[in-house]
Design goal:
Distance between the termini of chain B: 27 Å
Helix content of chain A: over 70%
Strand content of chain B: 25-35%
Structural class of chain A: mainly alpha
Radius of gyration of chain B: 26 Å
Oligomer: heterodimer
Strand content of chain A: under 5%
Largest sheet of chain A: none
Helix content of chain B: 25-40%
Largest interface: A-B, 28 and 37 residues
Number of helices of chain B: 23
Distance between the termini of chain A: 16 Å
Strand order of the largest sheet of chain B: 6-7-8-3-9-10
Chain lengths: 291, 558
Amino acid sequence: MTDIPATNPPSRKKRISRLFRDLCSSPLGAFSCFIVLSFFVVGIFADFITPYDPIKIDIRNKLTGPTRDHWLGTDQLGRDVLSRLIVGTKVALYLAVTSVSIALVIGTVLGMLAAFTNRWVDWALLLVFDTVRSFPGIMFALTVVALFGPSVNSIVAIVVVSTFPSYARLVRTQVMSLRNAEFIEAQRAMGASLPRILRLHILPNVIGPVLIVASMDVPLVIGVEAGLSFLGLGVRPPTPSWGAILNDGFTFIRNTSWIVFAGGLPLILTTVAFTSLGERLRDILDPKLRK
Amino acid sequence: MQTSYPVVQTQDLSIDFGAVRAVKNANMVINHGQIMGLVGESGSGKSTLANAIIGLLPHAASIAGGTLSFDGRDLRGFSPEQWQALRGREVSYVSQDPMSALNPSLRIGEQMVDIQHWSKGSLDAKLKRALYALEQVRMPNPDGRLNMYPHELSGGQKQRVCIAMAIMARPKLLIADEATTALDATLEVQIVKLLKELQADIGCAMLFVTHHLTVVEALCDEVTVMYHGDIREKGPVSDVFSNPTDDYTRSLLNCDPARIPEKCRRLPVMSDPTLKRLADPVLDKTRIDKTQDPILSINNLDVTFTKPRGMMDLLTGRAARRVEAVKDATLDVATGETVALVGESGSGKSTLARAVFRLVAAQSGEIRFENTDLLKATPEAMRKARNRMSMMMQDPIGSLSPRTTVGAAIVEPHLISGASPGLDLQQEAKRLLALVGLTEDFAKRYPHELSGGQARRVGVARALALNPRLVIADEPTAGLDVSIQGEVFNLLASLRETMQLSILIITHNLHVVRHLADRTAIMYQGQIVESGNTEEIIRAPQHAYTKLLLAANLQAQH
């Protein structure tokens, strides 16, 4: 046990480049990295790379299937499916990033609060978490849409409220098991303040599983948007979104099945990529699992 | 004694762990009716060898060569079914930690019946056999135990249940891997006595794996000493212990503080087995400054834990349940003095230490540190006091934050106290590592990359970062190999000589304390039952519990 090699000095630049190397060290990891990166790149630069105007109607060329001009064909109004998908990525990216990060932050903070303050606060917060979780998701979504109208921000609100309790629960349980760990006691004996302990010694030890849940929630969010758009309650037409494209595809599936494939594939790819990336990330962030 | 035949026989057995050879050409014979002790430090390959006999090698390990036979059958190439038929019937196993070896959600009786899946008997017969086994392990009041859950039993009782489960099938071989290590000294003696009696009763062979030499001497007939995968020495216990032929065995015996009757200032260590400095009474006198007020003075301290009342308790108006962890404790530590607080687990000794740092709230009494009453101190005064005293937690690795490198961990006291702004933290980390005898590149390591002894040194470095006047050390040598115990001991001893450090050691191990502590206080069920000069307490114990503890601890002293 005496000749364990020391790990590299943790300079920031090196750490980030090593993180990427570790992430891409397996074929699935490299594939997931590629998909997630392209998801971000396409989402951010969507407006610049669309070959056609995604909402321009060209009724003569409707439901063509793939052609040289329209690689993924056109929909029932003759709009270019590829362009609509690309702009739909922007909507999906915005939704995923905002709603997951807001839910993650709220959930983590409340979870740590519940675990580290007195038990009355804990009970009160648990009551809130469980009440929210017990609410049927679809009903809640329909209520919000009915009250505030269908929009991207309504979807963000729906997702945040319905997912933050699971982060909070997860963080709370993890912190509970760490709270009486010896290294936390040692910190308290040295007189470390609560924010310091939470930030430096609790958070890094609980964030791993939270990131995995978050990475698995990203596709969930996109799915919720797709579902609501499918029901006509999501993003307002004619703004393209993956769900809206799927919806159109289903309606005209007898004419051409291309639209369903084109709309479904990105959904499946991002789901797989984010999930596997989340698991890789957990292994890499834990110094014990790092090779 | 009937004719003895070999139960286990290995010839030139080698076991590989990936690229590392964990066991090299091991030759070992365990005869019927014999208790074999397998001794070595952590990483010596002793557990690997024991696991090979019961077919529980991890996937990464494989038998690279040699033979391994049990009761005349070749164990290499056994199919999973054959192993299953062997394990629990002909070979059984008692593990180190009785707390986690039992299923917490099944009653003792259910577990003991369940493990008899080899028997086709009725449930009644199985229950009867379980009861008989509990009687055999001298379980007090065995009838009632079958209906209990593991958490209702004490640690020693749980280990008795584990042993009872192991002997129910009348195995030919019982393997006990560090079966007494997790237990208090008084319990350890009881379990050793029990194993010896059981062996005489059922006549099986026994393989006792341990790093604890005293236990081997008390229990075993034969001993095998392992080091780095090699078997260094084997033979009858009396021969090996009185006249070791191998250098490693000799230094291992030399380094055991239990085998050094006279009080020492430095203990021999594996790297220098000849090192041994006797205690220097003059130095010990000048080290302690009795003219000043004691640096730490605990008077009539009470700590009571109140179990929080649930919703039903509040509605029915039931009073909260209380547990008195520390009752009316009075203890002084003079400047430069080393005081040991000795007691078994659950005696309240750790609670007392934690009360000093206000990690638990004390109900009444007084804790004076450098003439400030810590129980009434303002946050500001408490902060100042924390800069002048520090605590070393029990678990060397567990008390270090897993995501913090050693270099960052040891300078943390500076960052927390804010007492030394503008300090070059990298220089400071180097200074502290040098102080505890670690090289600079340890600064980049994470806690899980350290051995127990190295982690303990890091703990000492962190405790000394702010040049404290008082260090409270909770079991500073527990769970460490004999040789590393000596190193940590010598480190503390030299630091107190150069820094005029006052030390309060909390432990259940009298061997180390005997050499280190000027005074000793014995704690039993929350009360300090006896305190005074260490030598006097060991020579003439007054309280019944002290006598029991000494009898348990010092049995190696012939």
